[in-house]
Each structure stands twice: as C-alpha cells, then as structure tokens.
Amino acid sequence: MTIDVLPDDVLVEIFLYVNITHWDNPWHALVHVCRRWRHIVFALPRRFDLQLKYTGRRPMSEVPDAWLVLPVILLPNQNHPKSDQRWDNRVAALESEYYNRICRIQIDDMTNSRWERFAAAMQKPFPELTNLEVQQVDYENRDKDLVPVLPDSFLGGSAPRLQRISFRSIPLPSIPKLLLSANGLVTLTLWDIPDSGYFSSDAMATSLTAMTRLETLILGFHSPRSRPDPASRPLSPPTRFVLPALTTLIFEGVHEYLEVLLARIDAPLLSCLCITFFMDRNFDVPQLHRLIGQAEFKALDHHTIVVISDREIRLSLSPKTWMVDHSRLLELGIHCEELDQQLSSLTQVCSPSFPLISTLEELKIQEDGDLSPSHWKDDMEDAQWLELLEPFTGLKDLHLTDEIARRVSGALQEVPVEMATEVLPALRNIFVDEFWSHEDFEAITPFLVARRRSGYTVTVHHGRLT
Fold first, then answer.
1. How far apart are CA 277 and CA 224, in angstroms?
2. 85: closest CA among 114, 57, 124?
3. How does pLDDT run across 73-112, given as a tens digit for each residue?
4. Are residues 372 and 310 in contact, defined by beta-carbon separation less than 8 angstroms?
5. Nearest to 311 by CA among 348, 275, 343, 342
C-alpha cells in the first residue's frame, strides 16, 4: 500500500498536520512531488496559507503563472550584491498588474533616491495588503534629503485589510491622514521619527479615534525636538475616547507630547507600558499616572528594578510570575547621562502620586554592567538617594549593589535619630551583593540602632543579589 491510494481529503489533512520544512516557502516541497499534490495544494490556497515570497531575484514576468494567483510578500534584499537590481524588480511588482495580490510589503532598504518611485507606485488601492513595513537605511541623512510627503492618494485611500503598519526612520508628517482610514489596524509602529517627520499629538490622537481593533501602539521620536507648542494645548479638558483593544503602548519622546496624547485616551486593557522620556528639568505627568492607575498593573506581586547606565535610568515592574505571565510589564526610562540628573528625573516621575509606588514591597537598584567608573560623582548629595526612595513607603526588602549601597548608607547616616522610623517605615531587610568594609557598615549603624530601639529592626544581609 502506498500513499497514492489515499483520497484527496486525507492527503489534505496529512499536509496540514505533518511538519514539512523548506528554507523559503514550505509549500514548495509539496507542489514539487507530483502533479496530483500540486493540484491539491493550489486548489486550497487559503487553507494552506500559500504565499509567494518575492525578493526580486527575477522579474515578475518570469514567475510561473500558477504562482501568480497567490498572495505576494515583497521581501528585502538589503545586503545582496545585486540589491539595486532586486529593488527595481520589487518596485516593478508594485507597478505591475499583480499589485492587487500583494499582501505584505517589507522594505528595510529605503534610501533617499528610492522614495519618490516607491511613493508613486503606492498611490492606488491595495485590496489584499495586510502588512506595510518600511525602514530607512540612510540614518545619517534622515533629516537632510529624505523628506517624503505622503499624498492623500497613498494606498488609493483604501487598504481595507491593512492590519499592521511599521515605519522606522521615515519622516511622514502627513501620516495621520492615512491612519484616519485605517480603522482595521491591529499594530501601529512609528519609530525613530526624524524631526522633519513631526506630527502633532492632537493629530495623532484624532487618527486613533476609530481604531477600535488596535492592540499595539509604538511611537518614538528621534530627538527632543518633538516638543508640542504650549499654545496648542486646549484650554478645557479634552473629551477622551476609548481604545478598547489596546494592550501594549511603547513611547519614546518628550513627556509633554505623551501627556497631550494620553489626555485623549482611555485604555482599560493596557497591560504592557514602556515609556522612555528625553531629559527635562521638570516632569509633570498626571495623565501618565492616571493611565497607569486605570490599567492592568494593579494587584500584582512585582519584581521592581532600577537600573542605572551611562545613558539612562530605568524603572521596571514585572510580575514575579514572569515566565507564566510575561504580557504584563511597566517600564519607565529617562535618557540622561549625569547621575544626579538621572536620580532627580526619576524621583519626579515616581512622585507619591505615582500609582503602585506605595504598595511595592521589594526593590533592586543596580548599575548596568558597562557603567563607567566616572559615572559616580563624589560631590553629589547623598540626600538624592533618599528622595528617590521616599515614595516607596511599603518597601520591605531593598537589594543594592556594592557601590550603590555605599551611597544609600551615606544618605541614611544623615537621617536624624528621631526620624529613623519615618524613612522607609516598612523596611525590614537590606541585601548587599558584596561585603562592606568596616567603615561602610559604621556609616549605617546609627540608622540601624535607631530602628531597633523603636521596634522596627532592619537587618543587613551580605552576599550576591537574589
């Protein structure tokens, strides 16, 4: 008995459940076995999720006719020796009669000279397009020459199946116009937006109003020049709309931009929030606090870590069951090089009004492994460490690396005896990853003695961070 005696419907089930691998297109292995198998596979293109992955290796006119009825994915060839020739073939596919079969466009080799032809080829409806990903490779000239204008006719004003948009290092100041008609989007990524591609937070908010299916929003600017004009802020509180499916929000830019955007948004299912701000002297983020307070971060047993590096400081909250529930994450970072400014900035963002801050019971503070020795300032006031820790009123366990422990102990040394129970009132344990010298331990002893006499003993543990 051979496999040829099996009926077609049985073969279909075998094809679906047997893992057949191929370096490029898995279905190639099936259609090259025999004419019968090829007929079965091509008769059920959607069930087998058939797609033609086109890299431009040869012109579309040379692709077998049987394959041209399949959905087409345009893939990049950035590092190929004949990348220019393959680029021409891929754009020619956008200009050809087969454009309406293209379901995904992935271009990570966009340059200044290529944009005009690409934009012209995209000024028609793409009825099957689900993913549009474009990335510039000429990073050094992102703001010099490449200043594309997204015409109103981009995508012909119609891409009914479009679910994912990703533009990286592409200045598209008019993209909110496109987004107004993209109400089926599930993922929107606009990252490393050049200064010439700036669009207002109000325009961005307006474009999001109809995106009821949006699950992931990633928005990042290249520089602090993305600061909105204060005069453009509404005098009265704006009306907020709900993004009912949004679970992930990632933002990098100035805090004023995010505040204006969040003033228009409610996201009840938000569970992953990663925010990175450019350095500022004053951080006033009530809308961010409101969003965190309403999101899915409450009632979690958190891992809380502050990491200090040469370029930024970052606070991360994740559930202790991270391996089981890795969808919940809260990260707040600030781009800044000076340690004293890092501490003061994070202190402002994590003010007492910050949701969750007073309920956290465990905190690690550590430096990045590549932190340079010059980052530590001998003339910096130790009191800044206490200001950072002050909102953590429920903190029980404090984990510190050796260098940070010296700074924190120096700050605790300055606490008056009568106020020892007011500083970190719930603290019970300090874990240090190295053995302190006698001088280091003496510095913190008055604080430890005062706490013990008040009945709130704090124990210092030496050893590696847990």
1. 9
2. 57
3. 998 876 666 778 888 999 999 998 888 889 999 988 787 7
4. yes
5. 342
As given in the structure block, the two tokens for residue 4 are 């040829």
Q: How far apart are CA 83 and CA 74, in angstroms?
A: 13
Angle, alpha carbons 70-75-77 (nearest 5°): 145
Read off the tokens for 313: 């400081």
Q: Tens of pLDDT along 138-179? A: 655 555 555 566 666 778 767 889 999 999 988 888 888 788
The domain ranges of the chain are 1-50
- Compute the C-alpha angle 130/131/135, nearest 5°: 160
CA angle 171, 173, 178 (to 5 degrees): 110
Tell me which residue of 360, 260, 382, 244 sits closest to 300, measured CA to CA.
360
Task: Tell me the one-letter amino acid at 134.
Answer: V
> How far is 195 from 143, CA to CA, in rounded Å?
7
- 458 vs 209, 274, 446, 449, 450, CA distance in Å? 51, 33, 11, 9, 10
Contact 265, 205 (CB under 8 A): yes
Six-digit token pair at 64?
């077998």
The residues facing 334 across adjacent strands are: 277, 313
Q: Which two tokens stand for residue 270?
A: 């938000």
Residue with tokens 């500022």: 280
For residue 293, what are its two tokens?
């307070």
